[in-house]
Amino acid sequence: MGEQHTVKFPQEVIDEYAALGVDLAALFSAGHLGSRMGIQIKEASADRVVGTMPVEGNTQPYGLLHGGASAVLAETLGSVGSMLHGGVGKLAVGVDLNCTHHRAAKSGLVTGVATPVHQGRSTATYDIVISDEDGKRVCSARLTCLLREVSPGDAPR
Fold first, then answer.
1. Which of 3, 16, 56, 75 does the annotation list as catalytic?
2. pTM score, two decimals?
């Protein structure tokens, strides 16, 4: 868990951030919490973000995937999409997250796919579907992020 990997970004996004000296891969990683949980972002654009997370190490006392772990995966993916939508001049801050847990996952990897519901100037909302290795839906989530203006010197690096 927590190993480094390469995220696929559109070339124009890579170029936009590189011009500001921003380490795009680090900025859009799963962060410290996501790394501890083994989240890996496999694909990222403003229109679709895909990531995986192992069930092992992220379970509750009954050995099932913890609902909070699903929430972390959902918020990570939706936040990445929101940041990519907002671009270098905006910082995405989660303001609302809801999750519905449909079935248990006991082993393997779960995969989350975040797609936009709304991409505005000041907010972005993403639906996130988390499925098990058999393609069965484990969790449905929705994240809304506030897009705050930042000056280039304030952007995270």
1. 75
2. 0.85
